[in-house]
């Protein structure tokens, strides 16, 4: 692992995935912190035959990693969690909180907002407390509340402009007004942990919701006489669907169905990771709830609900290509470009284009992570022959 800035570096001889397609024997030039059109004669050349170079991953739904929680950890612990995910290719990351007391979440927003302002995080995602007790997943039932626009505004204010997304059960009282308020502020209203009907979901989309929080998980299943939220979220082009591709949350056939139905431009691969991601099995806290992680699967100690994942995005990428048979270019869109666009940071990250941050991932021919660069600096430097 190295932290050396690459003043002028050229990655050569790799398959480079650009917005326009894959270039065999391609080159990526890096000048200081950015991707550039060309490199000077004396630039350091790194040959990467048989490798892929893809944009750095963008995770818009992530609760922690490396043993650290974004909801409860100290600033140093949060930074360690961020670092852990960077080592797995996630160069842009939104910190997600889980349900807590309103005052606690407001204080937490203050702490996380500083990490956004200094460039370590791309924003805050509030998952709860405005979610359905019927689909609470790993959230404390006694702390759940109806989505009150005044309380949404309180969290927006506490986050000082760094809130990027709220997950809401939009069918609850105040849900539609909260969606409108978020849309007015340019913050993503995500439908999730919801018990909505098909019709209620359509109403929320019409009000301005644009994301489905981990589609299929924590919502009623698709049924032929009760299509529920899934049919509405799949069919509407205004919605991008989050998918957790860890092999536990979704069957590969369901992942393929979502890609097929939405098109690669409307899928965002996320981790929904909790503390154990990049760390290991054991006992953890998810907010106020105890979670046991066994063989990489996180479940509530009480009741056994799946409690987030231990996924990292390099694994999500590899699974999508090698198990789910999604074309590499489509995976790149859904793991980098789409979330970057939703978060409003696609002018800087999300694709390999001159002028953008030099955030990139090097994968070997088996799609195993071999290198990570963020803003021109190697987080993990690829070993070259
Ligand atoms: Zn989550």
From TrEMBL:
According to the entry, every stretch annotated as the Amidohydrolase-related domain falls at 52-378
What reaction(s) does this enzyme catalyze?
N-acetyl-D-glucosamine 6-phosphate + H2O = D-glucosamine 6-phosphate + acetate
Q: Copy out the cofactor comment.
A: Binds 1 divalent metal cation per subunit.
**Record: active site:** 272
InterPro entries with a match to the protein in the record:
Amidohydro-rel, GlcNAc_6-P_deAcase, Metal-dep_hydrolase_composite, Metal_Hydrolase
Q: What is its EC number?
A: 3.5.1.25
This entry's Gene Ontology molecular function terms read: metal ion binding; N-acetylglucosamine-6-phosphate deacetylase activity
Give residues annotated as binding Zn(2+): 127, 193, 214
What pathway does this protein act in?
A: Amino-sugar metabolism; N-acetylneuraminate degradation; D-fructose 6-phosphate from N-acetylneuraminate: step 4/5
Top enzyme class of this protein?
Answer: hydrolase
Its domain of life reads Bacteria
Q: Which UniProt keywords apply?
A: Carbohydrate metabolism, Hydrolase, Metal-binding
- GO biological process entries: N-acetylglucosamine catabolic process
Gene3D superfamilies, sorted: Metal-dependent hydrolases, Urease, subunit C, domain 1
Q: Which cofactor does it need?
A: a divalent metal cation
Q: Which family does it belong to?
A: Belongs to the metallo-dependent hydrolases superfamily. NagA family.
Name this polypeptide is given: N-acetylglucosamine-6-phosphate deacetylase
UniProt organism field: Streptomyces arboris
Q: Which gene encodes it?
A: nagA
């Amino acid at each position: 692992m190295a932290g050396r800035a690459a003043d002028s570096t050229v990655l050569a001889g790799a398959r480079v995935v650009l917005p326009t397609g894959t270039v065999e024997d391609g080159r990526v030039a890096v000048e200081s912190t950015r991707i550039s059109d060309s490199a000077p004669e004396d630039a350091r050349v790194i040959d990467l035959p048989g490798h892929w170079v893809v944009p750095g991953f963008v995770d818009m739904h992530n609760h922690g990693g490396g043993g650290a929680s974004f909801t409860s950890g100290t600033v140093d612990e949060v930074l360690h969690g961020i670092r852990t995910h960077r080592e797995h290719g996630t160069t842009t990351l939104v910190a997600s909180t889980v349900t807590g007391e309103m005052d606690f979440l407001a204080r937490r927003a203050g702490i996380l907002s500083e990490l956004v302002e200094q460039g370590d995080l791309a924003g805050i995602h509030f998952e709860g407390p405005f979610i359905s007790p019927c689909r609470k997943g790993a959230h404390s039932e006694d702390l759940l509340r109806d989505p009150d626009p005044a309380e949404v505004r309180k969290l927006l204010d506490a986050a000082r402009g760094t809130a990027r997304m709220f997950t809401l059960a939009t069918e609850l009282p105040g849900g539609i007004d909260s969606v409108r308020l978020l849309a007015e502020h340019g913050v993503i209203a995500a439908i999730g942990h919801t018990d909505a009907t098909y019709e209620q979901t359509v109403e929320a989309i019409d009000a301005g919701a644009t994301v489905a929080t981990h589609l299929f998980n924590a919502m009623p299943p698709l049924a032929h006489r009760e299509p529920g939220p899934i049919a509405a979220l799949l069919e509407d082009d205004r919605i991008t669907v989050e998918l957790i591709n860890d092999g536990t949350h979704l069957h590969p056939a369901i992942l393929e169905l979502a890609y097929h139905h939405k098109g690669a431009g409307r899928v965002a691969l996320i981790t929904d990771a909790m503390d154990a991601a990049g760390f290991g099995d054991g006992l953890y806290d998810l907010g106020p709830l105890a979670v046991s992680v066994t063989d990489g699967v996180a479940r509530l100690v009480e009741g056994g609900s799946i409690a987030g994942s231990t996924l990292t995005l390099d694994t999500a990428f590899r699974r999508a290509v090698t198990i789910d048979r999604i074309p590499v270019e489509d995976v790149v869109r859904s793991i980098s470009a789409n979330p970057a666009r939703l978060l409003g940071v696609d002018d800087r990250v999300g694709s390999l284009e001159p002028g953008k941050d030099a955030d990139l991932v090097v994968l070997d021919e088996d799609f195993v992570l071999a290198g990570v660069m963020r803003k021109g600096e190697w987080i993990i430097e690829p070993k070259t022959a």
